[in-house]
Structures are given as C-alpha cells and as structure tokens.
C-alpha cells in the first residue's frame, strides 16, 4: 500500500517547509469553504491549477483523485436541481426544475475541487510524517497527534495482515460470491483483524513501557526555515487576501 | 548478583491451563542463556513476566537484587534490561528510525543532544548510519530487526532479552547481528528455535517444556 505517491519530487512545493505550507493550506481552505462568491472559488481553483503545474505533480494521479471527488459532486448535480412536489403527475408526485439548485451544485463542485487540488499541491507534496511533525510544531494537541500518527503507522501493518489473511483464505479456494459463506468469511476476517489489532496495540504499549515510556512522545527537530519559506508564506498570505477581497466585493 | 531472579512462578492466562506452576529462572551477570522450547511453551511469557509486563499469580521476581511487587517497582528498572520483541513492528512506532532509537534515551532523561548522540552511535554500530531519517514502516524485514536492536542498545542496558532475534533474517544480516551482539559484551537471555545459533552464542541452553526449564547439553 503506497499512499504518498505525490510526496516524491523536487519541485518548489516539495522543498518548502511543511509548517508554512500547512498554514497557507489551512487559511486557503477556510476562505474557499466558507465563501459565497463563485469568483473567489474560481480564482482559487485557478491558482491551484497553476500550483499543480508549477509543482510538476503527476497529472494522471491528480486526475485520478479528482475523479474520486467528482463522483460525489456528480450525485449533487443529479439531485440538487430538482424539487419534489406533491399533487398531480405520476403517483401524485411531481418533479420541478430548480435553477438555484444548479447554482448550488456548481458552487460545491468548484469549492471541493479547489480545496482538494490545493491540498494536493500544498500537503500531499510532503510525506505524512512531515505533516505530522509540522502539526506538532504548530502545537496541535499531542494526544490527537499520537492518535493520528499511530493510525497511520499501523494502517500499513493492519493492511498487510488483512492481505495475508485474505491470501490464506484464497489459497484454500475461497472465492467471494454473493452467498452466506462469503459474508461469514468476511465477518471472520474482519473479526480476526479487530482481535489482532487489539493484541498488537497491547504489544506496542508493552514495547513502549520497556523503553521507559511515561506519557511523553518525543519529536526531534528536523525542519530548517529558509528565506524561500518566508517568501512563500507572504505570497500565500497575499493570495488568500486576494480571495477574501473577491469575496467581500461580491 | 543475579540480574534476573524468578522463583516459584505460577502463571496462567485467563481461562487457560497454567503456563507455569512453580518455575525458577535466573540470569547472572556475565551469563549468556539460550532458551529453546516448543511453540506455546511460554518462552515469551517468561520474558513478559520478568519485565513486569504480565503479573505472576504467585512467586517472586527480583531484578538487580531488588524485589519487584508492583508496576512502580518495575518502571524505573525496565530500561536497564533491553527487551527485543519478537515482531519488530511492535517495537518501531516512531515516524523515523532516528526518533525511534532516541525514544528510550529521551525517556531515560537524557538531554536531546546526548540522546541523539547515543542513537547515532547505536545505529552506527549496526551499520545503519544511513537509515537515521528513514521511515520505520518502509524498512525491509532485516532492516527492521536491526533497527529494533539499535533501539534497545541505545538504552545502554545491562542485559538483553531477545525474543527470536534471527527469525526471517538472511545469512548476512544474521551474521551482522551476531557480531554486534558478541561485541556488546552484554549478558543475555535469548529465545530461539535455531540450535546452532544458541550453541554459538550461549554458555547455557535451557529447554522450556511443560512449564519447566531443563538444561540441555550444549555441544
């Protein structure tokens, strides 16, 4: 399982300090998500597209992720422009076209794409570990961070365990079908995974105790704030301010 | 002085037949003990009891001459024993290898710079100097194993408890691991199914079977 395909690269965005990128990403997402102006969202999307090209992100992977997002927004386009009314028509129900819904679906699509693309440019260009460290430097609650980190660390291990169990089932001729046997087998696999992860959690905790753990999860510095990070922070701030002006002008 | 001394240990997992009913075990300073035994005989359980990670139903555990009764007795002494778990994935829980290796020394109250120095030295000793910034879950099986040994050696323990340290290693990696162990000049207790490995590296080999430790001819 490899989830950090965009984190490899040498573009400007890959080299920037994740602390600065995190701050800009947060401000950008907040402004875009809460805004009402299609202009602001559109310009936001445009900025992210430029960033995407400047960061030389693999476009195929970016497109794949955007397709996943837009599978959801497509549902909105199907549902939002219609209003269900009572009386008349088929079965006493009538469908009315609702142009405002169309606007709304468009707005949500624009915002969702801008934010997801923005996060790909700004956050996915760092590894999850770097983001984790950056969050710690921004003094996010250590407990929350530990949960986040343990989740990510053991996601890989559990995924491997799931894969192994699945292989073991297949090696004995298991083929998923629409049958009670299949449902039962998946229930066993899921149950097995739960039990195993509980045991694993216990062993990890024991291993931590063996090395003197008393509640502090240590982090070591390895970020170096450079001049380009300062520039980027100012530039990012200006772009977010531009979006805000567009928003207020509307 | 005995580093570890366990006498008359009784222990059972809930709802299971007893694992130990009156087991004695000790590890003396300078001694290298190997432990063999069938699966499920309780080899890992023995180590967990010695570290105070499981509580014996009856019997006494002494570490470094002190009687251990409760968690607060065990906690300060644990890092003086370097316990290497069977599955490296249990032991490597920090983002980077360096952070994982420095985790123990930082818990011991060392300054950041001293802890880092120790971590780097431990990695260097295992020929893993280039791995400091690597992400733990992306290491290979052999690299993970060596990294766990580094996390334990960085504690500067007085003895090692190793649970199947050579399982799944290729001959070269196993050779490197053995060389580091021998160079450390530490006493240890090691669980393994590999008779040849135990013969090479231990002066006493015990077999754990049906809750008893019986000395094996070490030839």
Summarize the structure.
With 250 residues, chain A is mainly α.
Care to describe what's here?
The complex is a heterodimer of chains A (250) and B (219). The longest helix of chain A is centred in the C-terminal third of the chain and has 31 residues. In chain A, α3 packs antiparallel against α9, α6 packs antiparallel against α7 and α7 crosses α8. Chain A has two domains: 150 residues, no CATH class; 70 residues. The two termini of chain A are 45 Å apart. Chain A contains nine helices and two strands; from the N terminus they run ααααββααααα. Chain A is mostly helical. A two-stranded antiparallel ribbon of chain A has the order 1-2. Chain B has 219 residues and is of the alpha/beta class. Chain B has a single domain, classed as Rossmann fold (3-Layer(aba) Sandwich), CATH 3.40.50.300. In chain B, the strands form two sheets. Chain B has a six-stranded mixed beta sheet with strand order 6-7-8-3-9-10, with helices on both faces. In chain B, strands 2-1-4-5 form a four-stranded antiparallel beta sheet. In chain B, α7 links the parallel β7 and β8. The two termini of chain B are 27 Å apart. The model of chain B has no long low-confidence stretch (mean pLDDT 91). At the A-B interface, α6, α7 and α8 of A face α3 and α4 of B.
